[in-house]
Amino acid sequence: MTGYEHLRLSVADGIGTITLNRPDKLNAFAGRMRHELAEAVQLVAERDDVRVLVVTGAGRAFCAGADVGYMREVLEREDWEAAEGLVDAGRSVVTTIRSVPKPVLASVNGPAAGAGANLALACDLRIASDRASIGQTFNRIGVHPDWGGTYFLPRLVGPSKALELIFSGEMIDAAEAERLGLFTRVVPHDRLEEETEALARTLAAKPPLALALAKRAVYESGQRSLEQMLQLELEHQLRCFRSADAREGLRAFLDKREPSFRGS
């Protein structure tokens, strides 16, 4: 899959992988890179042969956020339309990730700063190298968090801790990020690719409808009452009951064998 200047895309065995590919700039966003990422996420998500999406970075960083040199050019020429486009493109990326009806994993191979941090937080799960770090570094250059940081962060760590992380602008290491729940799992750096693939393969073998509906329910729960969630669970469960995958899962359980879910 080609056609992108600063991304690499691949699909194999039900796993789609998007790699941010500006390693010399720590995969910082510049030019159309944000738009390319939004397009790539949507493209891979719509493929029937993809059950899990992985987002990672090339080289020694996951993503350093905005390319500060590029942002300086935009602001110095007072191109407010371009500046707004930078933020809107980030909004498009995170909303697409959240709406994708399949698991999205961030494989955090190194520093994830600013927009890069919030790209990782937008993903459903974050598996990280023990060399990784993450931080809300926006105020270091006098700007406000974007890419959903003010939404994701307080939901993961609570409002006070979120403000501490945003106010400090500091990078925190992998162990602390795992303790806070920002990283789902931390693994040795030289095993990150292997562990990411293992997790992705495990999820790719699951029933796609059940996972898609569970993802939707979990993210909707923050805006719904218990009674509304119980109703949504009923609707989702009835959809699963009617699926071929539910019949296969029950048969496999009773036959004491591994199920083979087809996504129907």
If strands are numbered along the chain, what order do they take across the biggest sheet?
1-2-3-4-6-9
The biggest beta sheet reads:
6 strands, mixed
Question: How far from one another are the termini?
Answer: 26 Å
What would CATH call the class of the largest domain?
Answer: Alpha Beta
SSE class: alpha/beta
The rough form would be described as: globular
Percent of residues in beta strands?
15-25%
Binned, the helix content reads 40-55%
- Element-by-element helix/strand order: EEHEHHEEHEEHHEHEHHHH
Number of helices: 11
> Which topology of the largest domain does CATH recognise?
2-enoyl-CoA Hydratase, Chain A, domain 1
What is the level-2 CATH architecture name of the largest domain? Alpha-Beta Complex
Which spans of ≥5 residues are poorly predicted at pLDDT below 50? none
The strand count comes to 9
Brief overview:
With 264 residues, this protein is an alpha/beta fold. The chain is built from 11 helices and 9 strands.
Please tell me about this protein's structure.
With 264 residues, the protein is α/β, with parallel strands linked by helices. The protein has two domains: 198 residues, Alpha-Beta Complex (2-enoyl-CoA Hydratase, Chain A, domain 1), CATH 3.90.226.10; 48 residues, Lyase 2-enoyl-coa Hydratase, Chain  A, domain 2. It is 49% helix and 15% strand. Strands 1-2-3-4-6-9 form a six-stranded mixed beta sheet, sandwiched between helices. A three-stranded mixed beta sheet has the order 5-7-8. Helix 5 packs across helix 6.
